[in-house]
Amino acid sequence: MDKLLFTAMSGASRIMMAQQVHANNLANVNTTGFRADIEQAESIAVKGEGYKSRTLVAARAGGTDFSSGALQNTDNPFDIAIRGEGFFAVQAGENDEAYTRSGNFHLDADGGLMLGNRPVMGEGGPLVIPQYQQLDVGTDGTISIVPQGGGLVQEVGRLKLVKPDLDNVRKGEDGLFRVAGAGAQADMDETVSVASGYLESSNVNAIDSLINNMSLSRNFEFQVKMMKTAEDLATAGNRIIRGS
C-alpha cells in the first residue's frame, strides 16, 4: 500500500506542475510575441521487490515552443515583428542582454527606444532616436528618419537582431530568453528580417491548452482516488492485524 501511495503521489505532483505550465500559457494567450512553454516528465522504475512495470514519474525541465505566431497589422512604426526565426535584443540589467520576440516598442522622454522599461539594443548599444518628422524601419532593422523641420533622410541606428542556436537558448522567469552560459551573448545576424507596423501574436493554442488542462484535471482526480484506495487498503489491513 505504501508503494501504491507513493506512486499516486508522484503522479499527482507531476500533474500539478503540468497544470501550472498550461495555466501560464493560457494567461499569455494575448501576450505579444509569447512563446508557449512545454512541460516534460520522465518515468523512473521503482527499485526493490515487486513487478518491474512499477514506475514513478518525475518532472523535468521543460522546453519552449518556438513556432511563429500570426502577424497583426497595427500601422504603428514602433510595432515591429520578426518574420521567421530570430529575436530582438534588449538590455535586461547591467551587463545582461536578453532576447525576445515581443516588438511593441516605444520612445521614452529622452528618445530611447524601449520595450516596457528595458532599453532596446542596437549594433553598438541601446538605441536613441533623435526628434524626427518621419520615421521608417527597414526589413533589416535599420531605422531612418527625416529630421524635425525637414531635410535629408538619415540613418540613426539599427536594431540588434540575433538568431542563436535554439538548443542553447533558455527562457527566464521574466519571460526573456538568454544564451546558456554566464554572460553569453548572441551575435548580430544579417539574415533576420522584420516588418514594421506589425506585431506578432502569441503562439499559444488556447483550445489545445484548455483541453490539456481539462485532461490533467481528470488525471489528477484519478491519482487522488488511487491515494484514497491506498488508505482504505491500509486501514483494512490494520483491522485484520488487530483482529488476529
TrEMBL record:
The protein's UniProt keywords, in alphabetical order, are: Bacterial flagellum, Cell projection, Cilium, Flagellum
Q: Which residues form the Flagellar basal-body/hook protein C-terminal domain?
A: 196-239
Checking SUPFAM superfamilies in the record gives: Flagellar hook protein flgE (SSF117143)
Chief subcellular location: other
According to the entry, every stretch annotated as the Flagellar hook protein FlgE/F/G-like D1 domain falls at 81-144
Q: Which domain of life is it from?
A: Bacteria
Subcellular location, record wording: Bacterial flagellum basal body
What residues form the membrane-spanning segments? none
Pfam families (alphabetical): Flg_bb_rod (PF00460), Flg_bbr_C (PF06429), LlgE_F_G_D1 (PF22692)
- Family membership: Belongs to the flagella basal body rod proteins family.
- How does the annotation summarize its subunit structure? The basal body constitutes a major portion of the flagellar organelle and consists of five rings (E,L,P,S, and M) mounted on a central rod. The rod consists of about 26 subunits of FlgG in the distal portion, and FlgB, FlgC and FlgF are thought to build up the proximal portion of the rod with about 6 subunits each.
Protein's name in the database: Flagellar basal-body rod protein FlgF
